[in-house]
Amino acid sequence: MAHDIKLWAAELGFDQAGITDTDLSDQEPLLAEWLAKGYHGEMEYMARHGMMRARPHELLPGTLRVISVRMSYLPEQAAIAHVLSNPDKGYISRYALGRDYHKVLRNRLKKLADKIQERAAELVARPFVDSAPVLERPLAVNAGLGWTGKHSLIINRKQGSFFFLGELLVNLPLPVDSPVEEGCGNCVACLTICPTQAIVEPYVVDARRCISYLTIELDGPIPEALRPLMGNRIYGCDDCQLICPWNRFANASKEPDFSPREQLHAPQLLALFDWSEAHFLKVTEGSPIRRIGYRRWLRNIAVALGNAPASPMVIQALEQKRDEVDEMVQEHIDWALTQQTEKLASQNRKTARLIRAVDKGMPAHAR
């Protein structure tokens, strides 16, 4: 049965499936400490269910095993370097370029449950994809899908870390898989590269500093000290994965649903900032980006525009949008305007100095 489940998972598009029990007792003190330090920020739901996150069997009474699956999402033409190195464009985490993964994985997990039930009529199962208080990463580790990297994400020796996770809780006493050997060694590249130094120690992320949290989970103002560090990242951040040596093995996703939407792949910041709310909702229909809403979308882009090269066109766009938004977004537009005007003034001063220097070196008849 366990062998067939893995075959069925592969047929449904999953790159790997593993099986583990529900024992996450070793994670409870780590979770408690992380919450006690406030590293979850405004993600109140992380604390709401207490230690239930480490007790999958409490979510579905009778659960004996967890079938953990992963599915790659990296687009074939990811254009990562092209976007990150161009401050006039907006960088969107590569997982969010296509269809909402929650729906994709959940539907496949339901189909997997149907397959299992054809063989085991007594099956009671429930799929999860970020949709319940369960520690999916430790479950994936226990199921042998990879190890926990120092950035806290799961790394697979053959495919890096650009993949989604999902779980199917079942009441069947299936044989369990074994964890794999950890492979990070002495590498600390992810800690070093993080723009906001959110990885406060190996395996521990202070979400309050993480760009993914700031652009997606945080509802209010982004701390001003962190805004310049965000660059042109307007939805999520992939830096800790991009620097990871294991991602040289990352495979492009074969899933059509994760193909990038044209208007999100390598977009110009000014074009995005010009979207109406109706256009935002239309383009992000069925996308994970829609969950942040239009105001946070504008907030994030305003910060990126503040970090962009000095431009009268940017200043004009910021000024035009200011009266159309609420106070929270206005605050970020005002910040961006300050950044832009200061850079433009500095640029003008440099130009004036250059002109004076050239002028002094010219013969009198040529001045």
Automatic annotation (TrEMBL):
Q: Does the record's keyword annotation contain Hydrolase? A: no
Q: At which positions is [4Fe-4S] cluster 1 bound?
A: C184, C187, C190, C244
Q: Where does cob(II)alamin bind?
A: R53, D130, T148, I154, L165, S212, C237, D238
Q: Which residues form the 4Fe-4S ferredoxin-type domain?
A: 172-204
Among InterPro entries, the record links this protein to:
4Fe4S_Fe-S-bd, 4Fe4S_Fe_S_CS, QueG, QueG_DUF1730
Q: Identify the EC number(s).
A: 1.17.99.6
| Location of the active site | D130 (proton donor)
Paste the cofactor note: Binds 2 [4Fe-4S] clusters per monomer.
Enzyme class, UniProt record, top EC level = oxidoreductase
Which keywords are on file for this protein?
Answer: 4Fe-4S, Cobalamin, Cobalt, Cytoplasm, Iron, Iron-sulfur, Metal-binding, Oxidoreductase, Queuosine biosynthesis, tRNA processing
Q: Which residues bind [4Fe-4S] cluster 2?
A: C194, C210, C237, C240
Q: Please list the reactions this protein catalyses.
A: epoxyqueuosine(34) in tRNA + AH2 = queuosine(34) in tRNA + A + H2O
Q: Where in the cell is the protein located? A: Cytoplasm
Its pathway, per UniProt, is: tRNA modification; tRNA-queuosine biosynthesis
Its needed co-factors are: cob(II)alamin; [4Fe-4S] cluster
- HAMAP family reported for this sequence: QueG
Q: Per its database record, what is this protein's job? A: Catalyzes the conversion of epoxyqueuosine (oQ) to queuosine (Q), which is a hypermodified base found in the wobble positions of tRNA(Asp), tRNA(Asn), tRNA(His) and tRNA(Tyr).
Protein family: Belongs to the QueG family.
Quaternary arrangement and interactors, per the entry? Monomer.
Which protein, by its recorded name, is this? Epoxyqueuosine reductase
Origin species: Oceanimonas baumannii
Lineage of source species: Bacteria, Pseudomonadati, Pseudomonadota, Gammaproteobacteria, Aeromonadales
Q: What gene codes for this chain?
A: queG
